[in-house]
Amino acid sequence: PVIARRDKLTTAIEEQGKVLAAALAGNDYTVKVKRWQTNDAGERTRVEHDKRVRAWFFEQDGGWYVQCRYGSRILNINGKSNAVFVDKLEDVAAVLEAFKKAAETGELDKAIALATKARSS
After folding, report:
1. N or C end of the chain: smaller count of CB under 10 Å?
2. Percent of the chain residues topping a pLDDT of 70
């Protein structure tokens, strides 16, 4: 289970790299999702929709805050704070890379466990 949690977080961080690349280009990053929808004839069919992926970074206080999330929960990075502050949007990539390395080495396992425990309570 611990390895699966790390893999899930690592995959999400890689996706945030794509969100960042789209934000730098001035676009929204979307993924294709398939949903069931009832058509005019009353039949249920699978339809592809674009789903916008929410960014883990936001602009505030003259810079950018970057958060690490596990699902919808925000992880406490060092036990005190839940975000890292950078001056420019281009610097967000370095923070995401640091999150990825921390997730791969298991440094965020405790934060993930707290987030999943809080969700089930």
Report:
1. C
2. 97
